[in-house]
Design a protein that fits this description.
Helices cover 26% and strands 27% of the residues. It is α+β, with helices and mostly antiparallel strands. The two termini are 36 Å apart. Bound molecules: flavin-adenine dinucleotide and uridine-diphosphate-2(N-acetylglucosaminyl) butyric acid.
Length: 352
């Protein structure tokens, strides 16, 4: 009888065993999940969570797998979040509120906004992954972070089996940080996010990096949401490796924030060291890519992996690397940067 119940559950939830995760993470690692299922509605999500709780399974939620490094096969249940749907839920004269289900691809949401000429997320065009993971590390690019447009999210609390709403403040966003990486870690499954975008009076941000220069090259005179999005896409495609071609998870480390006093000392020694203002008093953000490049890692291949030739902060799998090869490379880079600059790099990627 018990066996029949399990068999029925497996069928209903479409549970796969020993599922390869090769195509479910962007590092292109040859790893497997002991159990795997893909959910496309909240009711199935509840059933699967129930099942995992009653069988004491380790649980992992996966979006696009673009910010994760598996160092071993996953000995538990992986839930691929495929909740879908994007809708406008509220509108005023100047703003629009858009709700996206967690399994929607982030760039599809950006395109939806761009096609409607709604402003706010165009600088975050082409960031890989799903909407549900975007609040995890408060994704950001080209001078804009998710928190700048974020209204709220809904998340299923595993322990209580109840959906809660989190406001912007409750998410405790910071640079590549949120409550979901700390006290709420592993406790919630984000099911949707809601963003507030502009219909009029867009606040374009073109100061960061190469945006202005690229817009000039594109001969743009009257700025639009779409043109900024196009410029960002152009820059990103010229610098960052496409995970479909070369396995990677974007920046492997965060850009460190150091005391401005230390930064000034280092700047005397290394006049070309880039530094950016930080929202934290007395701190300066520095470019981890620059530190790594100075230590001679940029473009260096170590066995099957290495640091990318155009962006030292991106670690890549040239084919056949294991998660531990990449982790060892990351550790060697951390040690080498510390030896030279006495600065500790912190991983941005979630290491499992
Ligand atoms: P996953 O890798 O699937 O998951 C990441 C973490 O979130 C895991 O711990 C997972 O368990 C958890 N998680 C996922 N979904 C949920 C959910 N619904 N509920 C609860 N927990 C969940 N990031 C930036 O911020 N800016 C960039 O410019 C940027 N550029 C990138 C460029 C490249 C080429 C690549 C490969 C990555 C880049 N990233 C960037 C990193 C990555 O795209 C983002 O972190 C993205 O938000 C990850 O989404 P994902 O769906 O792939 O998350
Ligand atoms: N730099 C080097 N050598 C390198 C790379 C960078 O010297 O190999 C220096 C240069 O001075 C460059 C500066 O670092 O001007 C900044 O480089 P870049 O503009 O490429 O940005 P980044 O700081 O390396 C951050 C994010 C990216 C995001 C870009 C654009 C982090 C950890 N990374 O990278 O996010 O796309 O800015 O906003 O904050 C990600 O999080 O995965 C990611 C790709």
């Amino acid at each position: 009888m018990l066996q029949v119940t399990f068999a029925t559950l497996f069928l209903v939830m479409n549970l796969q065993t020993e599922q390869s995760l090769y195509t479910y993470q962007t590092f292109g690692l040859d790893i497997t999940a002991k159990e795997f299922t893909e959910i496309s509605n909240v009711s199935d999500l509840k059933d699967v969570v129930n099942y995992s709780k009653s069988h004491n399974k380790k649980l992992l939620i996966l979006g696009g797998g673009s910010n994760i490094l598996f160092t071993q096969d996953f000995d538990g249940l992986v839930i691929k979040n495929s909740l879908k749907g994007i809708e406008k839920i509220k509108e005023t004269e100047h703003h629009v509120w858009v709700k996206a289900a967690a399994g929607e691809v982030w760039h599809q949401l950006v395109l939806y906004a761009v096609n409607n000429n709604w402003g706010g997320i165009e600088n975050m065009s082409l960031i890989p992954g799903c909407c549900g993971a975007a609040p995890m590390q408060n994704i950001g690019a080209y001078g804009v972070e998710l928190k700048d447009v974020f209204e709220s999210l809904e998340a299923y609390k595993i322990e209580e089996q109840h959906i809660y709403t989190f406001t912007n403040e409750e998410c405790k966003f910071g640079y590549r940080e949120s409550v979901f990486k700390h006290e709420a870690k592993g406790k919630y499954i984000i099911t949707s996010i809601t963003l507030r975008l502009t219909k009029t009076w867009h606040q374009f941000k073109t100061d960061y990096g190469d945006i202005k220069h690229t817009l000039e090259e594109m001969q743009v005179n009257d700025l639009t949401v779409k043109e900024i999005s196009d410029a960002v896409i152009k820059i990103r495609q010229s610098k960052l490796p496409d995970p479909k071609v070369l396995g990677n998870a974007g920046s492997f480390f965060k850009n460190p924030e150091i005391d401005t006093e230390l930064y000034n000392k280092l700047k005397n020694k290394y006049p070309l060291m880039p530094g950016y203002p930080s929202p934290h008093l007395g701190k300066t953000k520095i470019a981890a890519g620059w530190l790594i490049e100075q230590c001679g890692w940029k473009g260096k291949k170590v066995g099957p992996c290495g640091s990318h030739e155009k962006q030292a902060l991106v670690l890549v799998n040239y084919g056949g690397a294991t998660g531990n090869d990449i982790l060892q490379l990351a550790k060697d880079i951390i040690a080498s940067v510390y030896q030279t600059f006495e600065i500790s790099l912190q991983p941005e990627v979630n290491i499992i």
